[in-house]
Automatic annotation (TrEMBL):
This is Folate-binding Fe/S cluster repair protein. SUPFAM superfamilies: Folate-binding domain. The lineage of its organism: Bacteria, Pseudomonadati, Pseudomonadota, Gammaproteobacteria, Moraxellales. GO terms for biological process: iron-sulfur cluster assembly. It comes from Psychrobacter frigidicola.
Length: 253
């Protein structure tokens, strides 16, 4: 089995449904995004830990009043459900069992579908390549607790709200935003050699996700968290992310 084939086998997502009269209030105290602004399109968001790092990287949409659909990497689903049960023990909502959902590309954007027709290696490969090109990182069990949301430019994708009030990890995240800025942050790069695994270190550069290159016959493309000076000293080629993700990660002055 090639490493690329192995990646496709490991690329599995599930959806959990959270619904009940306390669903919105509970999620508002958990997620980095403003739950009251969610709609029918998937929004990248996160649940942080007390150190201000991403414990669960998710996509969420509001399906109906007090009804939210959450997509997460399948290997993190059990931990997420345990987390929801722990922190939501005194809130009135129910969490469904996870069901399969398939990564795909629609209208040139990475998304998810319940249709079996999208349960193909071609769809998974296209989703990974489109996700890396657009900064749509995905957190797996090996990278839980590794990255701070601002490092991954989540605030530039609408996945963080600095005015919504308290949530898990908010104190640390807000302190970084208002008093400093990450020195290392998300970049799209191209490299040669074998495809690195999520969480691998390439010297002082940490891999978030990687896939076989769509830009060259060999090598890989990756989303990495790195200081610009470390990238300039490496053999990696920097590729532009979308314009919204090219802005300075620091808070506008």
């Amino acid at each position: 089995m090639t490493q690329s084939s192995s990646q496709l086998l490991l690329l599995q997502f599930v959806q959990l449904t959270i619904q009940g009269i306390d669903a919105e209030k509970f999620l508002q105290g958990q997620l980095t995004c403003d739950v009251t602004k969610l709609g029918l399109s998937y929004q990248a968001a996160a649940i942080g830990n007390l150190k201000g790092r991403i414990e669960f990287g998710i996509w969420i949409k509001k399906q109906a009043e007090q009804h939210y659909d959450v997509v997460i990497s399948a290997d993190c689903a059990d931990a997420l459900k345990a987390h929801l049960n722990k922190y939501g023990a005194f809130s009135k909502f129910e969490t469904s069992s996870p069901i399969a959902i398939y990564p795909c590309v629609l209208d040139d954007m990475p998304t998810f579908s319940h249709k079996d027709t999208h349960n193909t290696p071609e769809d998974a490969q296209a989703w990974m390549q489109c996700s890396i090109a657009t900064g749509n990182y995905w957190i797996i069990s090996e990278t839980q607790g590794e990255f701070q949301p601002q490092e991954l430019r989540l605030h530039q994708r609408g996945g963080m709200d600095y005015d919504k009030g308290c949530y898990l990890g908010q104190e640390v995240i807000a302190r970084i935003y208002f008093k400093s800025a990450p020195k290392a942050f998300l970049h799209h790069v191209q490299g040669s050699g074998e495809i690195p695994a999520a969480g691998d270190k390439l010297g002082k550069i940490q891999v978030v996700n990687a896939v076989a290159s769509s830009l060259a016959a060999q090598g890989f493309e990756a989303l990495v968290v790195a200081r610009p000076e470390h990238l300039s000293e490496s053999d990696l080629k920097i590729i532009d992310l979308p314009a919204a993700l090219q802005a300075d990660v620091a808070r506008p002055k």
